[in-house]
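Translate structure to sequence.
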């Protein structure tokens, strides 16, 4: 069944259709919320709220206006932003989610150095301003088009693209700075 067919069933109170949609979308929603909030406890709360809203508002989703994943991410985005405004920004915990970047699998078997770089990338992303972090999470990690991400965040396409450009520039500067610091620690290549 398609998301549209399942949502029609959910609107009629079908719990099995609801469970099927939760299974299909939970991973993506939880990874997005983790990118914004940085800890598992709050992510679990946000996910519960997102899927409760899906159940309660199933009749308000309009398939012709957006994909279900876009609608769910917009709900998650709004809940995360509300949470951050109420509680302030939290630091990303050292315990990363199962697949924080989608690059984790690529790093397997490629050595400790690549894994450390990926961890530094996750930490650097967590330090970006909220809108830049959201823009990157939606476009690069959740796979939304720039227009879909702009719709989720309620921004113009130009503003979203500006956020992404600033985020990339900031990440590049952070990594260039860390490479310079590492070279200053060890100015000469290590002999093996």
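Result:
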């Amino acid at each position: 069944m398609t998301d549209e067919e399942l949502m029609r069933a959910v609107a009629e109170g079908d719990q099995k259709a609801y469970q099927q949609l939760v299974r299909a979308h939970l991973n993506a929603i939880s990874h997005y919320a983790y990118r914004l909030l940085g800890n598992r406890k709050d992510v679990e709360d946000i996910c519960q709220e997102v899927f409760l809203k899906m159940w309660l508002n199933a009749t308000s989703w309009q398939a012709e206006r957006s994909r279900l994943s876009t609608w769910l991410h917009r709900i998650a985005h709004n809940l995360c932003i509300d949470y951050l405004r109420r509680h302030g920004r939290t630091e990303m915990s050292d315990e990363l989610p199962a697949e924080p970047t989608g690059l984790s699998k690529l790093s397997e078997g490629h050595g400790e150095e690549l894994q450390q770089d990926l961890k530094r990338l996750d930490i650097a992303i967590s330090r970006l301003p909220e809108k830049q972090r959201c823009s990157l999470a939606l476009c690069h990690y959740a796979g939304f088009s720039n227009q879909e991400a702009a719709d989720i965040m309620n921004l113009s396409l130009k503003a979203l693209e500006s956020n992404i450009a600033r985020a990339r520039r900031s990440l590049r500067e952070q990594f260039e700075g860390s490479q310079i610091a590492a070279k200053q620690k060890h100015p000469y290549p290590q002999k093996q």
